[in-house]
Every structure is written in C-alpha cells, then in structure tokens.
Amino acid sequence: MDKKLIFVVEDDENIRELIRCTLEAFSFACETFETAEELLARVEEVTPNLFLLDIMLPAMSGLDALHILKKNVKTQDIPAIMITAKSSEADKVSGLDAGADDFITKPFGVLELSARVRAVLRRMDKPGNNGILTYKDLSIDTNLYEVTKAGEKLKLTRKEYELLKFLCENVGKVMTREAIVNTVWGQDYSSTSRTLDMHLKTLRGKLNDDAESPKYIRVVRGVGYTMS
Predict the structure, then answer these.
(1) pLDDT tens-digit readout, 197-209
(2) How far is the C-alpha of 162 from the C-alpha of 128, rounded, in Å?
C-alpha cells in the first residue's frame, strides 16, 4: 500500500525536522517546506493527502496559503491541519472559516501530532453514504459533498459538513458529545470540548441557526445534540 503523502510548511528548522521524523516514524511520506510559496509551487506538480500548515510564517501566512489551496480545484478537498502558537478562539475560528480540519498548538508532542494526522486521514478514507439526506429545508448530497439550504449552496468546511451529515443521519436521536467526536474526528483523537463547540458555533452561523431558539441543532444539556 502506498504511503500517505503529507506536505508540511514550517519556518522553524528544528520543528520542521521534528515533524518530518515523527511522520516518517509512523510510516507517512513527507515533504517539508520553509515557506508557503514553496509549498504552493510544489502542489502544481504533486498533490498530497494532507497539509500541515504553520500559521505564523515570515511572508505569506499559513491561513493565506489555505485560502489559496481551497480555491484550487486540485487541492480544495485535501484536508489541512493548522500548526499555531496562538490559542485564541478568534484565530481558530478564522482557520475553520478558511477550511481547516484541525489545529495543533505549539508546543506539541509526537503522539498528539500522529494521532491528529491519523484521525483526519482515517476520516477521509471512510466511504460516504450514497444519495441525498434532507432535513427541513436542508439537503445534503453525499456524493458531491454539497449542502444546500432552501436551494442555496452553503460553503462549509469538511468538518462542518461531516458534523452536519452525522446529525442528519441521526435525526430524532440525541447524539452524545463523545459519539460526535468519535465519528467526526476519530476515536484516537484527543479532542477538547472547545473543538466541538467551535465547529458547532461556525456551523450554526452558516445555517443562520439561533442557539437561543434553534431551528436545526438543539442542545440537550449534559448529554449532547440533536436534530429533531
């Protein structure tokens, strides 16, 4: 079986080498870049299975690079994990809006890095259900990975799409936070509650779903979430 190829952009040489050694130790193929510009040039020749993008770079930022990758038909569906020294909610929301699938905050351990990478790649490998899922005025095309609301296409990140799809597949059931995280991020993903909360917040914003008077996603306090 071919190894999954991961592109890494990180300007700190020591961290870049640590990431490369970690990924190769877990049987991934890896190409590293010091700048976002180098990575963007390389994807015109080879497309990887995953991007690891440092946010704070000396020239073009990782977020700017992600915006470009998501506009390129060759790379728009490739998942991305952002590497950041920042931990504010605003920075992470910006990344989620740009299409990031996950975040890892410096300093991080090699086991956390490998777990997050495996979780994202495993989720990408899972076959989707065929057909159309509908709920109220929402329609989810699981073949095209598209969501429409009242006929208007919504621009969701991959994790927002997977989160909405999972809830729509279980309409009428209360899904625990643990079940949601295990399905959307993977069982070995060391998620915090804030990760799920931030994805739900951005998803609700795109659905124009008022948390105080929800039309789509309802909180069941102490348990989880439901669409009912």
Answers:
(1) 899 999 999 999 9
(2) 10
Kindly report the pTM of this predicted structure.
Answer: 0.61
Q: Does domain 132-227 have CATH number 1.10.10.10?
A: yes
For tokens 């605003």, name the residue: 90
Instruction: Confirm if 144 and 130 have CB atoms less than 8 A apart.
Output: no
Q: Average of pLDDT values for 168-192? A: 78
Q: What's the residue count for the chain?
A: 228
Secondary structure string (H, E, C) spanning 75-109: CCCCCEEEEECCCCHHHHHHHHHHCCCEEEECCCC
CATH 3.40.50.2300 matches 5-125: yes
pLDDT at 30: 96
Beta strand spans in 17-90 (E): 29-33, 50-54, 80-84
**Order of strands, sheet of 29-33, starting from the edge strand that comes earlier in the sequence:** 29-33, 5-9, 50-54, 80-84, 102-105
